[in-house]
Design brief:
The chain is α/β, with parallel strands linked by helices. The protein folds into two domains: about 100 residues, no CATH class; about 260 residues, Rossmann fold (3-Layer(aba) Sandwich), CATH 3.40.50. About 45% of the residues lie in helices and about 10% in strands. The strands form two sheets. It has a five-stranded parallel beta sheet. Helix 13 runs parallel beside helix 16. The chain is elongated, with a radius of gyration of 36 Å. It starts with a helix and ends in a 10-residue tail after the last helix. One of its GO terms (molecular function) is [heparan sulfate]-glucosamine 3-sulfotransferase activity.
């Protein structure tokens, strides 16, 4: 293909040069005084003589020659660049692609502002209490994306969010989903709806700011975000008006074990004094459970789920036990694939059991970092808790767990103690 284009370029250059030389000869002949000028008027003869003396034929020849050479050189450079571009990307010369690409760059993947104004008065937010309503905006699920070429990444809203529960295996699930070819996973927690959102500003402006934080994705990719704090610290109404068709994944685990894991996590981040034990945090001086402690409050699953069910139907939830994900990752991920409508990707070869770590990891041929396992901070040791204190916690959480399972419409063995 390169030799063909170069051949055409040289042949066209030769023809152009020959024509230029012929035109130059004709011009010089016309400019020289001949016998025919005797028949012309004296005025025309004088003008011709003056022009001939002022614009010497040699000067004219040089100017035309330099002009032709410059034009040939520019043409050569242009065709050389075209040949190199074509050899790197055969589709680059497609006029349709060039037009669509330029349109995409000019638009800069603008997010269409199609959110309708909320009816009624603006909601009032208080830092100590969140009020919940059942208003909807009635916009379509695709109203924030501009349809572009299939080879161009777009800015769009997430179609699925892992909303929690914190310390119930959400990090492992994020790593498992990250290897799916049709998912565009946000690897870090965004914390937009629980920390960054400003309810004093118009929601559509905040929504644009949120979408800019997310990765861009191809049309055939689903954007996935994971922020466990959304389950109990965010307002479900915000997620609903962001995307009413949003699918929600919720990993649940034994709240007694979760409270211990949250204590270890908080201590590692310096939120607890090093000299305070787990019992010092969880129980008061009389041995009763400290119900105002954060690790206890966030281990109560029923109230947050009740708030979410006011806005999202049960069919948009996938509530999974983390023990199922940890012990049978292939089956668990295949269930998530089905829930999200993704192509089948996970097989028995996707995961392997790492004996030293004690958990399933991703096949190193797919994920090389850490032999396919999570970072060391995900495998922390839990402190010893006496059987008496564990029993106290189980009696405390059992009625809460029962209410949660009733709302979820499903039984979870790790939430049933007795």
């Amino acid at each position: 293909m390169n030799s063909f284009l170069k051949g055409n370029m040289l042949s066209s250059t030769r023809i152009f040069c020959l024509k230029g030389i012929k035109c130059l000869k004709d011009m010089l002949k016309r400019m020289r005084p001949t016998a025919n000028t005797r028949t012309s008027t004296l005025k025309m003869y004088i003008i011709q003589q003056k022009l001939s003396s002022f614009f010497h034929p040699i000067c004219a020849c040089l100017i035309i020659l330099f002009t032709i050479c410059g034009f040939i050189w520019i043409t050569y450079l242009y065709k050389k660049e075209t040949i190199e571009t074509f050899s790197k990307d055969p589709h680059h010369l497609d006029p349709t692609r060039l037009f669509q690409t330029s349109m995409t760059e000019n638009v800069n993947v603008k997010i269409i502002n199609t959110l309708e104004r909320q009816e009624g008065e603006d909601r009032q937010y208080n830092s100590s209490e969140i009020h919940y309503t059942s208003k909807t905006n009635g916009y379509s699920a695709d109203s924030f994306t501009r349809q572009t070429n299939a080879d161009v990444r777009m800015a769009k809203r997430p179609e699925v969010i892992n909303i929690g529960i914190q310390k119930c295996g959400t990090g492992a699930l994020n790593a498992y989903l990250n290897i799916h070819p049709n998912l565009k996973v946000m690897k870090t927690e965004v914390h937009f709806f629980d920390k960054l959102i400003n309810h004093k500003r118009p929601f559509k402006e905040e929504l644009k700011r949120y979408i800019k934080m997310l990765p861009r994705a191809f049309p055939n990719e689903t954007i996935f975000e994971k922020t466990p704090a959304y389950f109990d610290l965010a307002d479900p109404y915000d997620l609903h008006r962001m995307n009413p068709a949003l699918k929600l994944i919720l990993l649940v685990c034994d709240p007694v074990r979760r409270a211990v894991s949250a204590y270890v996590h908080n201590k590692a981040h310096g939120r607890y004094s090093k000299d305070k034990s787990y019992e010092d945090i969880i129980f008061d001086k009389d041995g009763y459970i400290n119900t105002t402690e954060e690790v206890i409050i966030r281990s109560r699953y029923d109230k947050p789920l009740e708030r979410y069910l006011k806005y999202f139907p049960r069919s948009q939830f996938l509530i999974m036990e983390n023990t199922f994900l940890m012990s049978q990752p292939t089956l668990a991920m295949q269930e998530i694939e089905k829930f999200l409508g993704l192509k089948k990707f996970y097989t028995n070869e996707t995961f392997y059991f790492h004996k030293s770590v004690g958990y399933y990891c991703i096949n190193p041929s797919i994920q090389r970092d850490n032999a396919g396992c999570l970072g060391r901070n995900k495998y922390r040791f839990h402190p010893y808790v006496s059987e008496e204190n564990i029993l106290k916690l189980k009696h405390f959480f059992q009625p809460i767990n029962d209410n949660f399972m009733k709302l979820a419409g499903k039984k979870f063995p790790s939430l049933m103690y007795f």
